[in-house]
Design brief:
mainly alpha
Length: 76
């Protein structure tokens, strides 16, 4: 019930005859560059998200600077 290799070959020959080899090559190149651009933007988006999480984590942490004195020293 599936597509046989001979049917795929016939479809490929028809597509090459209709569009031509050069146009198919350009379509493949354009598709490849679009996929690369998409992957690059996804990576940039993930890096920005990680950087924003680090900044938020730093803002949430608190630093308390204090000097500790013993009870005996304060009475004196």
């Amino acid at each position: 019930m599936g597509i046989s290799p001979i049917q795929l070959l016939i479809v490929l020959v028809i597509v090459v005859l209709i569009f031509g080899g050069k146009r198919l090559r350009n379509l493949g190149s354009d598709l490849g560059s679009a996929i690369n651009g998409f992957k690059k933007e996804m990576k940039n988006n993930e890096e920005e998200k990680n950087q924003q999480e680090r900044v938020t984590h730093l803002e949430d942490s608190r630093i308390i600077d204090a000097e500790v004195k013993h009870k005996d020293e304060t009475k004196g």
